[in-house]
Design a protein that fits this description.
This protein is of the alpha/beta class and 239 residues long. The protein contains nine helices and nine strands.
Amino acid sequence: MRSVPLQTVQEEAIPDGLAGNDIVAQAKAGMGKTAVYVVVALERIAKEDGLQCVVIVHTRELAYQVSKEFERFKTYLDGIVVECIYGGIPLPQQQARLSDNPPHVVVACPGRLKLLIEKSILIMSKIKIFVIDEVDKVLEKMDMREDVQRIFYKTPKNKQTMCFSATMPAEIKATIMKFVRNVSFQNPFLPKFLDILACVVISPSIRSWRSSLKRRSILSALRRRRRWISRELEIHLGS
């Protein structure tokens, strides 16, 4: 096993995620974006509260990959159930699986997830964390964007929202920002963060603003959890 240093996006985003802040993060492929929301979700959910985290992706292949990342990181977390959901599987079969072993985390393509919600097979009332991975691809098609919006409105207003992507074209950046809290634009590239629970935007072209009080709180939280995070990253990336 080898020790693996945190990537820049992880150093920036994990503390804010653990503090419960909304995040919009842009980083190249392979920079560890998935580890950010996996670590945050597994740290923040409680196994007695049922479904608390939903991760939306645009393909079943990515849904499978992300669900496997959750499985790796939760090696030492007993009782946490992760379910991968996408179309092409008979609905009764999927319903039986969800009923027999109710998940805490769902990684899903939006079409099938919307159907399960509409049929009350999945209940979203206790969702704490809402993640959109590869958010540019998820939101670029109108039908998928509408599905995501319908799902989003079925979740509690006070949830944490995190969006990740390797690219964020200007034409959908405004749409992305509608999913996060406490952001007002002074110009398209410089959001104003209004309070201590403000959204944190991490991007090569966007500056992340933090108050000193919030930063002390985040750093304190990170210090308390550093051993757990480092261990999980070593397990995930170690040889």
